[in-house]
């Protein structure tokens, strides 16, 4: 019996919400979900509080602004001079995925996405505006994408409505009026279906989206294998699948669609589909035609109206940068654009004006442009829970000092990762370790001068040498007069024991639990937090031919939470939450996803200060945006969630197309973040725009 039929049966039998809630506690499907009935939750949903800090892979380096150029200067065979780029956004935060406004003749007015207020929101800018205008979309949404304005209507992707099941994207197409009365946004995507990357035809009557339909996410993200669906504005409920396997559709006129997908030979390519007036007939009669050749990756197309040319982003085997080019569909030739303007920069998501004269895209703003040139040490992020503060750190594996006044973290994941400490207001930073590979930190809850870290490579085998280190320093050295703090490094694990990492200190400061590969498998061990295994005792906490990792000690000392694949040891890509008592008893799994639990990928578990909630990174919301359109993300489905200890009350905390992870949670609501201001003058690192293309885009077929 499926969940919908079950809920219907229960509703007919139990008229009272309170009786219904009491009953379903005995039914695993509902007790493992964030389920709400007539406003009554299955658990006591008292909002958690405190401050959460986390990292986002690559995001802090983006520095995206939106630029445009006149296309005519590139379409001549021998242009005398190249057109100059014109920046259309103001250099604040990151700005991306824009479209020109069709009713503006100057081709300088755009609607776009900016994260300047701590989440991805829709903005409009045009000549004469001193600052961009925030458009009415969905106030409660923390994610919006791919906006288009047509006939005073705003169309956009939003991810504010929870789908009917886990492991399904929240992304759907909505529309709002931008003039006159601002009512509730209208959802154009059918309930519990998933749409990405909308496009509107020249007349505004026809829509196209890349859609998962009602299917759950398969777990793949290199190529989402969505379908191309079209519908009419006059009848959005009647949708037609015109092509299986395609993404990022774009219209030429009202009858021709271009889209991208990975071809059978491995090259990302652009395909064309010519539609008849009857979409239902088209679905059976028309087949897509590949128009870009193998040997070059082509994606995120933007079609011109009434022309046999399209704009594409390309990755060529002899060039590590993504560039924008014009492709002539008839002549089968490419015309370079951004390669001639900025050879050593990535360029993303081209868009073209309705008169086909102007080309736009986003890229790193560069050192020559005005605007933000500093990556803040800490950045405030919009939180979906008003009692929770959320911060993004420019680094990885943050950990709060006991009083919450400082945060220790690693600058990166490579040889220069080291160990740094920053004030929680983001105003000052110090270096404790440099020129050493370090990762994963835990500040002693009882000592303000002790931090535990792992020294050695982060992604390594069980036998690789990775050591647990106890870092001791004088807190009085954290002053404005010094940048580097003298430390004492005490190694707690023996070199011959292999890979020892991910330590967590007990609340009384006496012991640490950590992951070790000394048995040939990565299991958990407990040892003295001061003496280590050289002078003190060490004991094995878990044992088995699987991976137990990333442990976290609960604030009351009664539980240790960790990630493990012990339910399916052969699959090293799926992890769930387990808890165990410090003496090794009462080991159990925290079931969050119910029958879908074998698809969980949960990492970086930690506790709230009151011990009632667990915070973690997971894949439970699927993929929010087409990953091929973004810089490299190792896990673009990584978002932060919280859940109660019994597996109920699951709540999502982050929304974007990036990988969020390595969170930490401090119980203080009054952690000093007053100096952190979005768009203001803050202390930080130089913004250099260092990020990679998706590493899974191969060019060696």
UniProtKB/TrEMBL annotation:
<protein>
    <recommendedName>
        <fullName>Dipeptidylpeptidase IV N-terminal domain-containing protein</fullName>
    </recommendedName>
</protein>
<dbReference type="Pfam" id="PF07676">
    <property type="entry name" value="PD40"/>
</dbReference>
<dbReference type="InterPro" id="IPR011042">
    <property type="entry name" value="6-blade_b-propeller_TolB-like"/>
</dbReference>
<dbReference type="InterPro" id="IPR011659">
    <property type="entry name" value="WD40"/>
</dbReference>
């Amino acid at each position: 019996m499926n969940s919908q039929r079950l809920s219907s049966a229960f509703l007919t039998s139990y008229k009272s919400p309170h009786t219904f809630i009491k009953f379903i506690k005995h039914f695993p499907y509902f007790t493992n979900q964030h389920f709400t009935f007539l406003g009554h939750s299955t658990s006591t949903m008292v909002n958690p509080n405190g401050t959460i800090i986390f990292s986002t892979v690559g995001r802090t380096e983006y520095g995206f602004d939106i630029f445009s150029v006149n296309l005519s200067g590139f379409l001549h065979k021998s242009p005398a001079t190249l057109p100059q780029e014109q920046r259309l956004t103001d250099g604040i935060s990151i700005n991306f995925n824009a479209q020109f406004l069709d009713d503006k003749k100057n081709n300088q007015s755009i609607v776009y996405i900016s994260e300047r207020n701590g989440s991805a929101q829709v903005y409009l800018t045009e000549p004469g505006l001193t600052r961009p205008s925030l458009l009415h979309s969905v106030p409660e949404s923390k994610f919006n994408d791919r906006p288009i304005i047509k006939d005073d209507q705003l169309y956009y992707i939003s991810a504010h409505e929870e789908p009917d099941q886990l492991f399904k994207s929240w992304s759907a197409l909505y529309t709002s009026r931008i003039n006159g009365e601002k009512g509730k946004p209208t959802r154009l995507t059918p309930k519990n279906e998933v749409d990405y990357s909308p496009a509107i035809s020249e007349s505004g009557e026809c829509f196209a989206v890349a859609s998962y339909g009602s299917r759950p996410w398969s777990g793949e993200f290199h190529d989402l294998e969505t379908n191309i669906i079209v519908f009419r504005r006059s009848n959005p409920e009647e949708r037609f699948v015109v092509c299986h396997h395609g993404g990022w559709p774009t219209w030429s006129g009202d009858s021709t669609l271009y889209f991208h997908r990975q071809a059978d030979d491995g090259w990302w390519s652009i395909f064309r589909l010519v539609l008849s007036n009857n979409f239902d007939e088209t679905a059976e009669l028309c087949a897509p035609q590949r128009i870009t050749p193998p040997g070059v990756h082509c994606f995120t197309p933007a079609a011109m109206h009434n022309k046999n040319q399209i704009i594409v982003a390309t990755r060529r085997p002899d060039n590590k940068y993504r560039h924008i080019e014009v492709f002539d569909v008839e002549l089968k030739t490419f015309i370079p654009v951004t390669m001639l303007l900025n050879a050593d920069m990535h360029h993303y998501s081209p868009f073209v004006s309705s008169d086909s004269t102007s080309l736009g895209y986003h890229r790193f703003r560069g050192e020559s442009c005005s605007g933000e040139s500093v990556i803040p040490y800490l950045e405030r992020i919009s939180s979906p829970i008003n009692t929770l503060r959320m911060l993004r750190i420019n680094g990885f594996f943050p950990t709060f000092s006991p009083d919450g006044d400082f945060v220790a973290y690693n600058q990166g994941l490579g040889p220069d990762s080291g160990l740094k400490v920053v004030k929680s207001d983001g105003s000052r930073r110090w270096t404790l370790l440099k020129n050493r590979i370090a990762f994963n930190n835990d500040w002693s809850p009882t000592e303000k001068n002790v931090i535990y870290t792992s020294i050695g490579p982060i992604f390594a085998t069980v036998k690789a040498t990775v050591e647990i280190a106890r870092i001791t320093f004088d807190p009085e050295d954290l002053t404005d007069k010094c940048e580097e703090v003298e430390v004492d490094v005490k190694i707690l694990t023996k070199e011959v024991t292999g890979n020892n990492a991910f330590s967590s200190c007990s609340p009384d400061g006496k012991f640490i639990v950590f992951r070790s590969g000394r048995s040939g498998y990565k299991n958990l061990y407990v040892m003295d937090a001061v003496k280590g295994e050289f002078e003190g005792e060490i004991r094995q906490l878990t044992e088995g031919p699987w991976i137990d990792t990333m442990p976290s000690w609960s604030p009351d000392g009664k539980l240790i939470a960790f990630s493990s694949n012990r339910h399916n040891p052969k699959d090293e890509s799926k992890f769930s939450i387990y808890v165990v008592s410090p003496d090794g008893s009462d080991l159990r799994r925290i079931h969050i996803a119910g029958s879908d639990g074998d698809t969980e990928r949960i990492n970086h578990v930690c506790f709230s200060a009151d011990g009632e909630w667990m915070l973690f990174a997971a894949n439970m919301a699927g993929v929010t945006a087409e990953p091929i359109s973004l810089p490299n993300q190792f896990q673009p489905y990584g978002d932060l969630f919280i859940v109660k200890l019994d597996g109920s009350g699951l709540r999502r905390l982050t929304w974007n197309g990036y990988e969020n992870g390595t969170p930490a949670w401090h119980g203080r609501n009054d952690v000093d973040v007053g100096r952190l201001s979005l768009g203001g003058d803050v202390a930080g690192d130089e913004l250099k725009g260092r990020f990679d293309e998706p590493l899974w885009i191969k060019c060696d077929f």
